Amino acid sequence: MESLRPPLLQSPEYARTLDALGLPLRRGSLGPDSAPEASWLIQSRHMPLLGKVELLSRGPVLGTPLLPEDWWPACRSPRGTPLLLNATGDAPERLLAAGFWPLVTPATIAMLTLAPPETMRQAMHQKWRNRLNHSLDAGLGIRRMPLTPGHWLLEAEAAQARARRYRGLPPPLIAAFAQANPGRALIWEARCNDTPVAAIAILRHGPMATWQIGVTPPEGRRRNAMNALLWDAMCWLAAHGHDRLDLGMLNSDDAAGLTRFKLGTGARAERLGGTWLHHPALAPLARRLPKRLAA
């Protein structure tokens, strides 16, 4: 597993979190432990009509180029439990051939390469860099601290998610991640006149990290506090051995401003592989679907 680059939902840190919460989890790999060809973490859900369903999100994590027919026989449940796959970059026609039924078209994420500060500055869009410069002159105090269950950011994130009607990892799960992985969940907080005006939470997993939540009240937006926070986090993460920062999903329709903000950092847009269902009763039909339905 150490030779792979798992996203948050496939990381050993996330597995420890689910274990600590007593949530069902099935894990596996192909190849030797020292240099696995693939690894996966599979969760369980109960869904209307389908009953028990397994969930493989952002996986499997591949160490070598493998097709679904290479990893699926080892990955599938011996009981034939239906599986929802939030795919990464698998060839859609090969997923059809393996019996997966396409459900949802691929989402896109923003992935930022971490590097020395000057390199990251050069990769920024000009407007983002200008706002960063403004934020650095805005009288903000930036603090980094371990994420704790009582920090105001978690409650503010829950309220923001309700107001904007989006779903992310629940704050209690984020707090559980921090408790199960000491030092791997951090908060960056911006203050002005000793009053919090913005904060972000970063979860660290292997050589990667994920920007999980962020809240900016009006005063923080006026001072471009989010630019200052993310920049401080980028530099710190790069200096502490991380080479990628996952900035999360891009949604140009419902969150165009946030999409511009993420890409303005110099992050590249990465298209994932869509959501697929493998069900024993549907697999024979899925193999006969036209390839255009998987595009």
UniProtKB/TrEMBL annotation:
Domain BioF2-like acetyltransferase, first and last residues per copy = 168-250
Respond yes or no to whether keyword Isomerase is given for this record: no
Mind listing the UniProt keywords for this protein, alphabetically? Answer: Transferase
User: SUPFAM superfamilies from the entry?
Assistant: Acyl-CoA N-acyltransferases (Nat) (SSF55729)
Q: Name one GO molecular function term.
A: transferase activity
Query: Mind telling me which InterPro entries this protein's record contains?
Result: Acyl_CoA_acyltransferase, BioF2-like_GNAT_dom, PG_Glycine_Bridge_Synth
Checking PANTHER family in the record gives: LIPID II:GLYCINE GLYCYLTRANSFERASE
Its name, as the record gives it, is: Acetyltransferase (GNAT) domain-containing protein
The organism of origin for this protein:
Salipiger profundus
